[in-house]
Amino acid sequence: MAKKSILLVGAGGHCKASIDVIEQIGEWQIAGIIDRQDSGVKTVLGYPVIGCDEDLPELRKQYDYALVTIGQIRLSEPRVRLFEQLKTLGYKQPGLVSPLAYVSQHAIIGAGTVVMHQALVNAGAQIGQNGIINSQALIEHDVVIGDDCHIATGAKINGDVKIGRGCFIGSGVVIKQGVELADNVMVGAGALILNNITRSGCYVNQGRLLETK
């Protein structure tokens, strides 16, 4: 079966991690990388930078598939902007799962979401579009994660947790079963979340509200 060509939009560290997932899947041909015009980046892991955001309309004539490959720490807006731009241009944005991850056949992964190496997504979980489930993250049964979220490395999201859209859950975070988080919440690395977080746009570290946007 011929491989499908895909553009990667963003040339930083998350792009490298995404390339590794795509190579392991083996079903895609990376056509090239899209980055800022002034970035100075020429190649990423041997794949050429072939244009900038302004070239995406013209490149759509050649390519059907694209994936947002900029990372997300704190704010989700840059990924949201690119995801919506690609959607408006008519690109298909596949959900991708590393063959080294486990995703239950009873889970749902949204468009443009990438599940990284050794992540585990259990039965009944629902993960929205344009997300990152990073390496060794655990998404337990019946968890609902909104669009545009990044669940960072080694985070543990226990059963029946509900996470709003645009959230960042830092490395090693543990969220107790049944807890609910509002939209655009940022949880610092290593935090233990035992109670609901109802204030949208806040920053929580070690269970303490530190600031709001």
From TrEMBL:
Annotated InterPro entries: AcTrfase_PglD-like, Hexapep, PglD_N, Trans_hexapeptide_repeat, Trimer_LpxA-like_sf
Binding sites annotated in the UniProt record for substrate: 71
Residue stretches making up the PglD N-terminal domain: 6-74
Keyword DNA-binding: no
Catalytic residues identified in the record: 141 (proton acceptor)
GO molecular-function terms, A-Z: transferase activity
Transferase recorded as keyword: yes
Protein name, per record: Acetyl transferase
Lineage: Bacteria, Pseudomonadati, Pseudomonadota, Gammaproteobacteria, Thiotrichales
